[in-house]
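Reviewer has doubts. Consider these tokens.
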Amino acid sequence: MSTCATLVAVVGPTGVGKTALAIALARRFDVEIVNADSRQVYTGMDIGTAKPTAEELRAARHHLINIRRPDAPFSLGEYLPLARDSITDIVSRGKLPILCGGTGQYVWALLEGWQVPQVRPNADLRAELERRASAEGATALYRELHSLDPQRAESIGPHNTRRIIRALEIHHAHGGSVAAGAKSAEPPYRARIIGLTADRATLYQRIDERFDAMMDAGLLDEARRLAGEGYTLGAGVLSGVGYSELGQHLAGEVTLPDAIARAKTQTHRLVRRQYTWFKPADPRIAWLDATSGLPIDAASSLVQKFMESPAPCDTIANDSPRANPGTEFQ
């Protein structure tokens, strides 16, 4: 291709400051933000998914947030064309797209040009897997998935039964993982990937403090409202961190302090899984250390340099010095 879109991606673990950095860049460049968080696509799940605040939404236009109900299926195969359309629209208006989020599969599928086959739900297989999950426990299905596709299993974790079942469903459909079943096409993007990281102790402390702030902001009420609307906390998309543990509390299974402690622990585990997608040694990621604060100037410099430098399409820049990317998470 003779011309292609210039795209910046801001990636890294949950709680490290990706949204704040994207908004800071929006104040320096003419950008719009494309969501790459698999849970922020759902309506009504605002506090628990750390969606951008009303002020942040005013600071920059966001795409692919609040586009599905919590009971509506949404897959990588649906995400990719929507994200590509958003990027095309942003570029057509002379703006810079910033892809922002911690769902590694979404990020790499978009940047690497995966062409993902649409795998329709297999009702019979799904019913059998759900029966097995009920009889044997989700851990048994997780072990099976891990033996077939270790990277996908580790990115999901052993507690998200819905996503484990879906991954097994996809494997049975074409004999491999989503990535194995995807064909790569040359993506029409010049991409600069900025990764945010922080040392383990600092990041875990921020995560714990952020969850406390979510509780103060009304996360328990949000979970109670979703349950009142007929959604099952701990099932489907609401099996994610926070909603699942608060669902256990609302069901009388654990105390509120225990639910909060469990949610924090599960978020720490999520961070470790996210680093399996955003590897500290990946030369395509320009890692910036956010331990002591948001590296706005350094990120801005990377963006400015990238925008000014000529490069062919299908290029993921990898020529910048990289900060210590938190190797303790490897």
Remarks:
- The longest strand covers residues 189-197.
- The chain has three domains: 5-117+183-198+278-329, 123-179, 202-274.
